[in-house]
Specification:
The protein is mostly beta strands. About 5% of the residues lie in helices and about 35% in strands.
């Protein structure tokens, strides 16, 4: 039995004296069994409450901020659990809901904010629109008259935004029913592929789509895409248009190249699909092609800057809450022993979740419609090799990189010592997982339908030497396919730039445009027991020293294991964009005793650094790399191991040309359980195939 204690805002009735009395009475009456029960304090919040209320179930607070202040007062001297129940409804945050160090819990006093059982609380950074105020545009509405599509013109609704205190900047966005509305654009999906008749110096091009000339006001229209290279985003505005030549001028900081790609955004004439919108800042009107059930759903415009929830705390839990609508991020937590679970975090301009610290947990959440990265995970001490022990488990992460479409995946991880398990990550235009963390376990995850706009990328992307000790084990990867055929083919696991110290074992990879496994050189990599179907395998010769042979000069910076340089061995010990990146005085880890214990091979780099082979100086680069017991199935795929690399690694017992039907229970039906009677176990004795029963999101009790 637990002892329930109610605290009242503004009246510190639960004094230290009363706490002592209650606890002593409880012990005397035998209420508590030792180490089995804890005191409980409960507060209640409801949109129908009042901040002058008592915070009880019968007299709840109106705002979460009021409950936060009550918790702050109540936890002084208290040992037990404090829970704030959020009743059904929407809690609008015009600015960030902030929790600071003085709000922190402790090992003796945990703090939880959760939706009341059977109800859903929404912490919303978007201004909610009253759907009854949507109307048909007036007959003399000159803006609506510019819509070209006849069906859209009949169905588009207008909303007067004046007086709602909304800043119509680049970060504002419209959300409806948990989805991101699209600013009216051309084309509706994808890009115009290539700047036709491009003049790179003048930054002009021919409008091959013949749409710019149909707009009343083309100057100032946004142009967004990748103007110069596949893995770098670009943006600009139309600065000129010559109807006689049909040439468009761009104002942009990017280069404009003939093989770039782009789309036009913020064009009222192109409002022609359900879910598109246009905001006319001059008249403060929203034009929205709403779904048919718009009267029954929530519609809002993001307004809260930086983060909807910002917490610098320890021992906090957010449970079963919807957090949405941030112009930038939705929730940022810095601290230790915090948890976000059973929640939906969605619809933001940048990151949905950012967590930084030790022993944090993200469990059983749905993270969706991120403008940038779904989840950013930071923590640990990379120099002193103290692991974060943060756990990311059983989360569904989808529709990420919706605005910032390059290198913004389901997750970005930086630091040391994380466990990433049982997550499903899908629907992203570029990578799904970017990593510069070390000593990480990535296991039992399911990644699919990513990199569909990417070329030189990977569903998992890491490289260099900042990610030693990582293990990728028992994961399923599927459909890593670029829909833009004129660009390069994306990879699945992409260990770039001579990255080493990685373990990639017992994974299943199905249907990849590029390589299922792509290693850009690198040493001490263990790649074994993987099954690749319609996906190739590559391990190139990066890390060669400059020499006299045919590969002279190949990747000299990566080859030297430069300790002090910006591309050196320890460069990743501080963030890559930090002024201290690559400075040995800021990364004093090399040659310390604990590094020599965890990474003994680092002590050899100065003394046993090169092997002379055929007059090509080859560094001790490939070390103990092993490529063994892997299987290639399907047609047209092969092992592409460079001759130089193969001489310096253990490469054996790899097979190919196996039919997928001979491997899986039901390949065509999507059951990738490896058959117990599959011949692959005869061909590779001791093969440790992926156990599909543990892959992906697991049932919650």
């Amino acid at each position: 039995m637990k002892n329930k204690i109610c605290c009242f805002h503004g009246k510190k009735v639960f004094s230290l004296f009363m706490a002592a009395v209650l606890l002593c009475s409880a012990v005397q009456l035998g209420i508590f069994a030792q180490d089995e029960t804890r005191d409980i304090i409960e507060f209640y919040v409801s949109p129908d409450g009042s901040d002058s209320g008592k915070g009880t179930a019968e007299d709840p607070f109106e705002t979460i901020a009021a409950a936060r202040d009550a918790v702050r007062a109540a936890k002084e001297g208290f040992s037990g659990d404090i829970t704030v129940y959020l009743r059904e409804g929407r809690y609008y945050q015009e600015s960030a809901l902030e929790f600071t160090a003085e709000d922190s819990g402790s090992d003796d006093c945990t703090v939880t904010y959760k939706s009341y059982e059977g109800e859903t609380a929404i912490i919303d950074g978007a201004v909610a629109l009253d759907v009854s105020k949507f109307t048909k545009p007036a007959d003399d509405d000159a803006v609506a008259a510019r819509i070209k599509d006849a069906t859209a013109k009949e169905n588009v609704l207008v909303y007067d935004l004046s007086g709602l205190n909304i800043n119509y900047d680049e970060q504002s966005a419209v959300y409806y029913d948990g989805n991101r509305a699209l600013e009216a654009r051309y084309p509706n999906d994808g890009y115009v592929l290539g700047f036709a008749e491009c003049d790179s110096s003048a930054k002009t091009f021919y409008d091959v789509s013949n749409v710019v000339g149909t707009w009343t006001e083309p100057i100032g229209v946004k142009v967004i895409g990748m103007f110069e290279i596949d893995w770098s985003s670009s943006e600009g505005t139309i600065s000129s248009y010559d109807p006689a030549t049909n040439r468009v001028g761009l104002s942009t900081k990017s280069l404009v190249k003939s093989n770039g790609r782009y789309y036009y955004s913020g064009v009222i004439e192109e409002l022609d699909a359900v879910g598109e919108y246009y905001i006319d800042a001059a008249t403060e009107k929203l034009y929205f092609y709403a779904p048919a059930d718009y009267m029954d759903i929530g519609i809002g415009i993001s307004s809260c800057k930086e983060a909807v929830v910002k917490a610098d705390v320890n021992n906090y839990t957010f449970d079963g809450i919807i957090i949405e609508g941030g112009c930038d991020d939705n929730i940022r937590i810095t601290g230790n022993d915090n948890c976000i679970k059973n929640s939906k975090i969605r619809c933001c301009g940048d990151k949905n979740v950012s967590v930084n610290g030790f022993r944090n947990t993200l469990y059983n959440n749905e993270i969706s419609h991120s403008g940038g990265t779904g989840i950013e995970v930071l923590g640990g001490d990379s120099i002193n090799l103290i692991p974060s022990k943060t756990l990311v488990d059983n989360n569904e992460i989808h529709d990420f990189g919706e605005i910032y479409r390059v290198y913004n995946g389901a997750m970005y991880v930086e630091g040391i010592g994380f466990t990433i398990t049982h997550n499903e990550m899908y629907r992203g235009p570029h990578t799904s997982f970017s990593n510069i963390a070390c000593e990480m376990l990535f296991e039992n995850n399911y990644i699919h339908d990513v990199c569909y706009e990417a070329g030189d990328a990977g569903a998992i992307y890491e490289g260099g030497w900042s990610a030693n000790g990582n293990i990728y084990r028992n994961n399923l990867f599927k459909d890593i396919v670029n829909k833009l055929s004129i660009y390069y083919n994306p990879n699945c696991y992409y260990n770039d730039d001579a990255g080493g110290g990685k373990t990639f074992v017992s994974n299943i990879i199905i249907n990849v445009d590029g390589q299922g496994v792509a290693c850009g050189g690198g040493r001490d990599n263990v790649i074994t027991d993987n099954i690749l179907i319609n996906a190739g395998f590559g391990y190139d010769q990066r890390a060669y020293y400059p020499g006299t042979g045919p590969n002279a000069g190949w990747q000299p910076n990566q080859a030297r294991f430069d300790v002090e340089g910006a591309s050196g061995l320890w460069a990743g010990l501080v963030p890559w964009n930090s002024p201290a990146w690559g400075r040995i005085d800021q990364t004093p880890a090399y040659a310390r005793e604990f590094w020599s214990i965890l990474y003994p091979w680092t002590m050899l780099l100065k003394t046993t650094n090169v092997v002379d082979l055929e007059d090509n100086y080859v560094p001790y680069a490939f070390g103990n790399s092993i490529v063994r017991n892997n299987i290639l199935g399907g047609s047209g795929v092969s092992y592409n191991i460079s001759n130089q690399t193969e001489k310096h690694i253990t490469y054996r017992d790899n097979i190919s040309d196996i039919s997928p039907e001979d491997i899986f229970v039901d390949y065509e039906g999507g059951d990738y359980t490896v058959r117990e009677d599959s011949n692959i176990y005869n061909l590779i004795p001791g093969l440790k195939a992926c156990d599909m029963s543990t892959v992906g999101i697991q049932p919650v009790d």
